[in-house]
Amino acid sequence: MKKTILITGGSRGIGAATAYLAAEKGYAVGINYLTNQAAAEKIVDSIRQQGGKAAAYAADVSSEPQVTDLFNALDRDFGPLHALVNNVGILEKQQRVEEMDASRLQRIFTTNVVSCFLCSKEAVLRMSTRHGGAGGAIVNVSSIAARTGSPGEYVDYAASKGAMDSLTLGLSKEVAGEGIRVNAVRPAFIYTDIHASGGEPNRVERVKETVPMKRGGQPEEVARAILWLLSDEASYSTGIFIDVTGGR
Ligand code: NAP
């Protein structure tokens, strides 16, 4: 039987690359998205054409009732959950801290942090041996911004990723004895649409010379780290971080 994986924000960018690679590795893939149904369905069709199993689910993962519905739908369609990738993340226009208002901060922290707690909660309820589950693995898609702080661009986003790192550490220890491993990847400067939300679609091109490898990263390079952390190859690793940053 195929293992089941849920990837939040799987319709584009790093999430989409993770969905394709997970299918290649034999997972049945649940692809969550917010609005871009066409992109999500395209990935589902492509996976099915290759003989894989996939389905797309619209849900705003910062909303508790929508997260509950999402996991219930996945239970119904795929059975037991084995792996969760908390990949959803947003950023907003580049600003200094003194320009940020509360509504922006609420959007950033609700989408990037609360969603991660809510989805992790549902995953633990299903995977933990404490709740009758058979174990599993969670990977959080954080950012190197947690370490650099993103001054002058989006300190709010960086702080949300810092919170995600603390969640990774705390939850990993909380459930380590219950069959669940919790790890994170911390990418930087990956070619995806996210930079357009910051007001600079070509940001990676501008900053790539500051990367020791002198190039931006591809979503597939992040996906490979995610799939490794989820796999049995990483069976003795929990609460760890893999930086996918070209040496930054
Ligand atoms: P992206 O290309 O902007 O894709 C974002 C994905 O999240 C889309 O699938 C989008 O769905 C979905 N989404 C957004 N808000 C959602 C919500 N409330 N509920 C459900 N889905 C939602 O992003 P990306 O660059 O691949 O980033 C993925 C993760 O990597 C994020 O956590 C980001 O912070 C992190 N990261 C990225 C970089 C980078 O350089 N790209 C660097 C470090 C960390 P729709 O398609 O429906 O809009």
TrEMBL record:
Keyword Heme: no
Alphabetized GO MF terms: oxidoreductase activity, acting on CH-OH group of donors
Keywords: Oxidoreductase
Highest taxon listed in the record's lineage: Bacteria
Pfam families on file: adh_short_C2 (PF13561)
InterPro entries: NAD(P)-bd_dom_sf, Sc_DH/Rdtase_CS, SDR_fam
Family statement drawn from the similarity comment of this UniProt entry: Belongs to the short-chain dehydrogenases/reductases (SDR) family.
NCBIfam families noted in UniProt: PRK06123.1
Protein name from the UniProt record: Short chain dehydrogenase
Native source organism of the sequence: Larkinella punicea
